[in-house]
Amino acid sequence: MHGKADPIRVRRPVQPGAPLHTGEIAARNRARFRGLPGPAVAFIFSLAAVSSDLAAQAPTAPDLSGNYIRGDFVGLGESGQFNDEGLLTVEGQRRRDEYDYRTDDPVYGCVPASWARVWWNPNVVVQISQDADHVRLRYEFMDLDRVIPLVAEDDPHDAVGIDGLPTLGRSVAWYDGDTLVIDSSDYESGYVTTMADWAGLPQSRRMRTIERLTRGADGFTVEITHLDPVVFRRPFIVTFNYVATDYELLDYGCLPEEAGIVSPD
After folding, report:
1. Domain end: 11, 36, 57, which one?
2. Co-location of 77 and 193 in the same domain
3. Helices (H) and strands (E) in the chain — how many of each?
4. Torsions phi, psi of 139, nearest 5?
5. Which residues are CB-contacts of 155 (< 8 A; sequence separation ≥ 6)?
6. Model pTM?
7. How many domains does the chain have?
8. Taking residues 239-253, what's their average pLDDT?
């Protein structure tokens, strides 16, 4: 299912004709540059050597293309267990105390609360495809289609969001070794998650998230770090594992009028 996607390197077609041996290539190059001043020839060959070295050092993106479904592991916080003691600021605690799942959970309007909430959802497929200048993540949950530009590390200028979903912020991405890094900011106020004991964890407009998708043997791990000085005293980290699946991506087809109010407990 996983091909050898390599969006970083571009393979050029081989020119027609018999392959040249090393000596023949050198002879052809000497003929090509005959008549040029010695320093100019030396400069040309030095540029070629630098270009070759850079190409050899160019990072190879991890192959994440395919369909995945959430595995069993969900880790909350640095310890892997949810512990909200000392996590929230005074303002963060005030916002959480005011949360009412019957009126404040955006999922009843077919809107996901956050990217953490999207990754949290079990039993739905995530489809990833990679291109030279972007990565695309299609989530079965709420039929989300996320196209993220690939940029130089930590460059927010080309960040893009999803129309009509400002609580999901704007994102850019880059590769760090075997990891796809997604950096998101420019959020609207809302909630990081609306599930179980951690329902109502708030987010402010100053929140920034870093999603790190690291390739593994059977899929990948996604670690999401939430940085929000308004509501969190320390980074709030969530980790999930996703495994490769043969399940197809289906339409979620959420309709607000059919949504039933369910307690997060």
Report:
1. 57
2. yes
3. 5, 11
4. -105, 130
5. 172
6. 0.74
7. 2
8. 95
